[in-house]
Amino acid sequence: MTVDTAPAPAAPAPAAPARRGRTLPAGSVITTFLVLFLVVAAFSVEGFASTRNAGFLLLDVVVIALIALPLTLIVVTGEIDLSVASTVGLCSAVMGRLWVAGLPLEAIVPLVLVLGGVLGAVNGFLVTRLGLPSLAVTIGTLALYRGLAFVVLGDQAVADFPRAWTTWAISSIGSTGIPTVVVPLLVLVVLTGVVLHATPIGRSLYAMGNSEDAARFSGIDVARTKLWLFVVTGVVSALGGVYWTLRYGSARADNATGLELQVIAAILLGGVSIFGGSGGLLGVIAGALLLGSVRNALQLVNVPSDVLNIVTGVLLITAVVAPQVAARVKGRRRRRPAS
Amino acid sequence: MSLFLTSRRVRGGLTGLAVAAMVLTTAACGGTTRGEDEGSSGGNDAAGASADPDAEIPADLAIAFLPKQLNNPYFDVAATGSERAVGEIDGEFSQVGPSEASASSQVSYINTLTQQGADVILTSANDPNAICSALDQARSGGASVVTFDSDTDPACRDLFINQATAEGIAQTQIDTMAEQIGGAGQVAILSATANATNQNTWIELMTEYAAQEYPDMEIVTTVYGDDEDEKSFQETQGLLQTYPDLKGIISPTTVGISAAARYLSGSEYKGRVALTGLGTPNQMREFVQDGTVTAFALWNPEDLGYLAAYAGAALAAGQITGAEGETFEAGDLGEYEVGADGVVVLGEPTVFDAENIDDFDF
């Protein structure tokens, strides 16, 4: 039995299939850190702890957290998808183009989601059928999809979306300040969490991330699973594109430029190993919230944006390096009595 | 490993397409389409409020300057102007902004300012619509919003400070040229691209104004340097060969004027063919100093920032509401009047020459 000594009421992460010997479930460190940060910021940063600010903060995090869901699954299998933000941009541009062409939004949204699936399938096909490394493939499609977005819409912006839709995108639940979109996002978080942590599919993803060969020999269709993960990531990124367009009320080819780095930052900060095979979803959500909260709090105390980028970078490196150092220290301690 | 396109998958894909087509056709009848929603109000929100021209500007107004991006020389100069104005009215100046000029990056900064309770937000929009809802929230939180340089949708701000009118830009360039060539002779225009809207508007107005004011000045041609240094350089060379009697070149683009100046300064035409247009002091300094260029024009971004800050303070104090015809004092720059759609025009562009160019750094 372990005793939780964290002072804050951090909910323990749903136990990821952690390797034996690890005492803490993946993500619990970052969740504790998030709670500590929120408490400190609430007392020391003027204007941080208010319903309005919570709303602003969550609106900034929504798309990052959304895309992080399927991308976490991809990273767990040891792959990566860097084209997510370009998919957001291309889907936003296509949404604008179709809207100008006179299609109803009720048709545009499903079409754009299908497009996202196709874009994801291209990634998945190149990675799983041609055996190319996902890093190389998705750097390519990162440029390709963004380029296509500019072909579709150029440097124009389409902005006359119906008010009812754009105000819904930034509306909040009653007077709580919590954005309405957090509700469907939470549903997706729970869904993804269940798939990753409580189903054979989820376990097979960790197996692939630890050893693809072993996974294949134990009867897992690695290629097919990964292909579908890329398709789902494409669809979810397209959903992100639709939401982004409505939230800012502006369809543009350069929408969400650079967002992929924020999503990957949230995932790594959340304790998911970039080499695959370990990590959990709760940590990722905590990572996204921590990045958003840090930015928000620093902005409120008028820290310039250049410094914000430096802080984010340092935070990220710390998050990636710290577990490595911890593991090495632990390894040395264990080895010493034996030698 | 199985092939990607098995018959089962093909069938699955077809089903997907069929579903998409069905969604499309059903939604096409009776969905939300473009043109139905005319709900966006173009009116001025402040219409109900009344202005009190004699109201005092309260001390300690929190005035925030939000440029398209930080570390951009143009906006740094504008910020200097705003900061000076805020100092004069005993306000609190702050500059915040994103490090990249993307459409949505300004939104979280506006949200932060709303949360901090800023009294005035001075901003240049990266996208006319993307920051609209954030500005709406800021205004309902009590902030006055002034845009400068790049406007938003007029419904989302109180005032827009326009750097110069098209007429002002056209007339200043023709007057500057006329002064240098004695109001007579052949003049050519070196523009950016053939379909650049602002360039074409200026060229049209320049031609009209020249014909009216300086009948002996003949605008012989317009060539296009596409805002590329190399091409502008070659076009200048071509102009001088085609028109041996050419007296002057007007280039209403910062890329064109500096390329033309570079060509002239190294050629036999230096000092014989006049060059003017729109350029920045830093880019043109060496050519003014070596005598290639006598005078050129551009609006002064420092004045732009200065005026924007005073306009914001006047709004916050209640001296004006943003309605057409209201007037306010803008420190050293004097009195300004609000025009249609809440637009305030800074005035004539500033003419830079050997005497004043060293006062400017942008």
TrEMBL record, chain A:
Q: How does it sit in the membrane?
A: Multi-pass membrane protein
Molecular function, one GO term: transmembrane transporter activity
Sorted alphabetically, which InterPro entries does this protein's record hold? ABC_transp_permease (IPR001851)
Q: What does the UniProt entry say about where the protein is found?
A: Cell membrane
The highest taxon in the source lineage is: Bacteria
Q: GO CC: one term?
A: plasma membrane
**Membrane-spanning intervals of the chain:** 24-45, 57-76, 107-126, 132-153, 165-198, 227-246, 267-290, 310-329
Q: Does the keyword Cell inner membrane apply?
A: yes
Q: Which UniProt keywords apply?
A: Cell inner membrane, Cell membrane, Membrane, Transmembrane, Transmembrane helix, Transport
Give positions of region: Disordered: 1-20
What PANTHER family does this protein map onto? ABC TRANSPORTER PERMEASE PROTEIN YPHD-RELATED-RELATED (PTHR32196), AUTOINDUCER 2 IMPORT SYSTEM PERMEASE PROTEIN LSRD (PTHR32196:SF71)
Q: What is this protein called?
A: Autoinducer 2 import system permease protein LsrD
UniProtKB/TrEMBL annotation, chain B:
Tell me the first and last residues of the signal peptide.
1-20
Cross-referenced SUPFAM superfamilies: Periplasmic binding protein-like I
Going by the UniProt record, its keywords in alphabetical order are: Signal
* Any single GO CC term annotated in Swiss-Prot or TrEMBL for this entry: outer membrane-bounded periplasmic space
Q: Which Pfam families match?
A: Peripla_BP_4
Query: Known NCBIfam families for this protein?
Result: RhaS
What is this protein identified as?
Monosaccharide ABC transporter substrate-binding protein (CUT2 family)
The UniProt regions of compositional bias labelled Low complexity, in chain numbering, are 43-52
* High-level lineage: Bacteria, Bacillati, Actinomycetota, Actinomycetes, Geodermatophilales
